[in-house]
Amino acid sequence: KFTCCETSGSIGVCPLTSPRPRPQECPSTHDLLNSLRQVEKMLAVHEASYQQGLRSLRKKMSALHNSTMAIFKTATCSKPEPPAHGRRLGRVFAIGHEIHFLCKPGYELIGPRTRVCLDSLRWSGQQPMCRPSSSSSSAASSPPPVSSTSPTSSSPPSSIRPSHCTHFLGSTRCTCDVGFTISGRSFVCVSDIDECRLFPLGQPGRLCVHQCENTPGSFHCFCPAGYDLSIDGRSCTDIDECENRMHNCTADQVCVNTYGGFQCATVECPHMKNATYIKTSPMRCERNPCMLGDKACTQAPNSISFHFLSVVSNMSAPRVLFRVSAARVLGDTLRFGLAGGRGRGHFSVQRSGRQTGTLLLVTPINGPAAVEAEVEMSELEHNNLLGRYLTKVTLFVSPYEF
Questions:
Q1: Which of 69, 228, 287, 380 has the most C-beta neighbours closer than 10 Å?
Q2: Which SMART domains does its entry note (predicted)?
């Protein structure tokens, strides 16, 4: 739009100018602070909602993981059938367990000798089969000898020998050399299969946890003294001599069951120069009150507790063995550590909470052995000692790893 304007005595055309905008007023400091507080509250609400959702998600994932692990722990593979003319060794079909297959004398195994139950609840490998060996098929095709015979020129396997047969009054009688037995109607002599030699101790898939003895056509597992043979016929279960009253501990001693035996432990309160103790329970000693100003007495432990643990030989490490906790705290500081020099090569103490310390086994111990550790808990107020509490832990290590 244009309007007429007068310039230098003449009429001209001038552009129509718009009015200038009014400047806006800045918000006050009070308004800005209110806005920031509202934003802060909104973010806090969102953060709380996010944390709650995250906790709920973690709980659901933990429940799902636990249920899945429970299924895998209880799940087993299907029971495999032994091959024809053979047999299966192994009665546990859980995940990670092995089974083994053997063929009868005169047959050879085709396929895997060992199968493992996988996480998919399927057996590894293919189902094996037993087929007649070349020596047994030739022996079966030939007619049985009718009189005492000697081994043929072809050398049979060391587990198979020809029998010695004679005919008398229409019947046939066969005998075998010492250590061999007749095999069915094939009239050949076979030696027993030593399963213990096939699956020796210390090897994967071993038949027995401790000792294996071969028997005619089978095997038998034995356990050392202090153990019973488990239901599976392979593992060993510890006998609790203390629970079954099979010990010779006196009334003043504490019977401690160990793996494969027991120990008679004696709990005695210490004798110190400047402090005296009294037994307040079978496993605890308390210090008597100190004289006023007797610093040597106040430096002695307020209480001494005794604990006994049983473990197997060469137990894997690191491993949590024991926890020491304070029921109530009077001072402002708690300190945990190993007292003296006992057990420093095998143990370590770590703080696991505000009022809790943990005794750890840091190196495996080869048994049999008895190892001691002293865990000290000190209570302080402004770096001034209020009290010391000693826990003596004795570890009885079995000579066996089971």
A1: 287
A2: CCP, EGF, EGF_CA
**What are φ and ψ of residue 142, in 5° steps?**
-85, 150
Last residue in a domain, options 132, 157, 174: 132
Residue entry with tokens 């000190």: 378
Q: How many CB atoms lie within 10 A of CB 321?
A: 20
Give the three-class secondary structure for 197. Answer: helix
Q: Is 280 exposed, middle or buried (0-12, 13-18, 19+ CB in 10 A)?
A: exposed
**What is residue 358's predicted lDDT score, i.e. its pLDDT?**
92
Distance CA 303, CA 101 (A): 61
Of 8-17, 98-107, 275-284, 344-353, where does mean pLDDT reach its minimum? 8-17
Task: Tell me the residue ranges of DSSP E strands in 259-346.
Answer: 261-266, 277-281, 284-287, 303-311, 319-325, 333-338
- Contacts of 171-178 with CB under 8 Å at 24 or more apart are 172/144, 172/146, 174/144
Contact of 101 with 113, CB cutoff 8 Å: yes
Tell me how crowded residue 116 is: count the other CB atoms within 10 A of its CB.
17
355 located within any domain? yes
CB 303 within 8 A of CB 278: no
Q: How many domains does the chain divide into?
A: 2
Give residue 307's pLDDT: 94
CA 236 – CA 209 distance, rounded (Å): 7
- The alpha carbon of 245 is separated from its chain's Cα centroid by a whole number of angstroms, namely 30
Beta-strand relationship, 107-110 and 129-132: antiparallel
86: domain CATH number? 2.10.70.10
Residue 287 has pLDDT above 90, yes or no: yes
Which domain covers residue 81, as residue numbers?
A: 75-132
- What is the residue whose two structure tokens read 């101790």? 201
* 384-397 and 303-311 strand pairing: parallel
Spatial CB neighbours of 249, under 8 Å, sequence gap ≥ 6:
242, 255, 262, 264
**Mean pLDDT taken over the chain:** 79
Give me the sign of the Cα torsion angle 34, 36, 39, 43: negative
> What's the pLDDT tens digit per position in 220-261?
889 999 999 988 888 899 999 999 999 999 989 999 999 999
Q: How far apart are the first and last CA of the chain?
A: 104
Rounded to whole angstroms, how far apart are CA atoms 400 and 367?
7
Cis bond upstream, residue 399 (ω within 30) = no
